[in-house]
Amino acid sequence: MTDSSVPPGGHRSGRGPRKRPDDRRRRSGPPRGRQGPGRPPAGDPAREAALDVLRAVREDGAYANLVLPGLLRERRISGRDAALATDLAYGACRAQGLLDTVLAACCDRPLADLDGVVLDVLRLGTQQLLRTRIPPHAAVGAAVELVRARAGSRPTGFVNAVLRRVAEHDEATWVDRLAPADTLGRLALAHAHPRWIAEVFVRALGSEDELAAALAADDARPAVHLAARPGEISAEELAAITGGEESPYSPYGVLLTEGGDPGDLPPVREGLAVVQDEGSQLVALVAARAPVEGRDTRWLDLCAGPGGKAVMLGALGAIEGATVDAVDRAPHRAGLVAKATEGLPVRVHTGDAREVALPEAAYDRVLVDAPCTGLGALRRRPEARWRRDAGDVEQLAELQRSLLRAGLERTRSGGVVTYATCSPHPDETTAVVAAVAAETGAELLDTAALLPEVPDTEAVEGPGVQLWPHRHGTDAMYAAVLRRS
Ligand SMILES: C[S@@+](CC[C@H](N)C(=O)[O-])C[C@H]1O[C@@H](n2cnc3c(N)ncnc32)[C@H](O)[C@@H]1O
């Protein structure tokens, strides 16, 4: 279960949401029991916010983790309501495939024929019934009120009936009843992943042995890590200031143990630390540790936005006497890199890494942190697993190969390139590296040897290290180091 931390109860705070321009119209709507624009807001700010996130994701293709924080701020939702809104919105986005499978079994018509708001309310209700400790009567009652407020009273009976059917079984029983017969299909449904992603994980893991653990870890909310800026503050000091714990592997990492917005922590506000998954810290570390023959003062970060690894490379470069050129194609993201690396020896360039006006065969150390499917960071992007499809991979792999080639072209003989993705998909990781190494004659270095403190990192299908949420508590980051001949 994902959301066992959700506080029980119906979460009626008594405080209504902040007045919105259409509130007056709602108040003058038809009385209860008649169809119309609906009753006044139900006084359930958490579920209203969660519902608005689901709508934005479904209708506008929005990202839940970008929509929700603004919504909470704008409506001044905080504390337990904010925690509930977050659990419900992210939980329902993550579990959408499982929720829809159960709902399809409980509805007398195809889900595609349902009104969008009704479907969102049903998903939210099913999430509460199957994946939280909220009592069934509270979950169903809140869903009925929500649909009444948003779509009038006509669908209330339908929503009530469907959710009562959902509530007849718990999550495990529904999975037993509805899952395909094979282990992979059952685990994919039970842990709310599309089947094709479970298949990718099995390929990257080498067998089905760890699949249940990998999918379960991927179905949970990720821990938040900070990275102490090298040369400014140690992880020990950062942990003491923030009340967090030093990370198990990254010498700069701190695991936050308290909730709240990490952006508000004084060391983050003062630029002494950044919010960065420990896996990303380890990738930056690989890029900085890779052995270079001879001079080691010109570094390049070819896909730098929004700048997490550029900060780490810039700070380490400042210590080592190196400068970093950081490139991103997207002007907005290049701007974020510039902001994040202020005061560090980092020059930012906006342009396509394959064409940008930077010298060839010149850099000692290069990072290519390529755009990818993001299958290794699904915990952070609640809806992403249902948006991606297997067909995305081929086009991305072509771009990844061309970016790695561009990285090697900028590297001098004896210099090193670290290729990284936040995806464990072998077609984006080992296959890209093996193909470009074969084509260019670049030497593949033993990347696992660069992270001796991290166990079980070797990628299965080819060169490089593969981190996993269930093994390392990090995103499923991949990295491999090549030396230019
Ligand atoms: C995985 S992200 C990099 C994350 C970054 N290294 C960090 O640690 O914050 C990939 C980045 O590559 C950029 N990108 C995509 N195609 C590119 C290209 N052809 N040239 C340069 N940058 C590109 C994207 O805009 C995106 O910011």
Automatic annotation (TrEMBL):
Matches recorded under InterPro entries: MeTrfase_RsmB-F_NOP2_cat, MeTrfase_RsmB-F_NOP2_dom, NusB-like_sf, NusB_RsmB_TIM44, RCMT, SAM-dependent_MTases_sf
Can you tell me which residues bind S-adenosyl-L-methionine? C303, A304, G305, P306, G307, G308, K309, D328, D352, D369
**Highest rank taxon of the organism:** Bacteria
Positions of region (Disordered): 1-46
Offer one Pfam family short name for this entry.
NusB
GO BP term, example: regulation of DNA-templated transcription
Q: Mind telling me which PANTHER family this protein's record contains?
A: NOP2 YEAST -RELATED NOL1/NOP2/FMU SUN DOMAIN-CONTAINING, RIBOSOMAL RNA SMALL SUBUNIT METHYLTRANSFERASE B-RELATED
Stated role: May act as RNA methyltransferase.
- State the similarity comment: Belongs to the class I-like SAM-binding methyltransferase superfamily. RsmB/NOP family.
Q: What is this protein called?
A: 16S rRNA (Cytosine967-C5)-methyltransferase
Name the source organism: Actinomycetospora cinnamomea
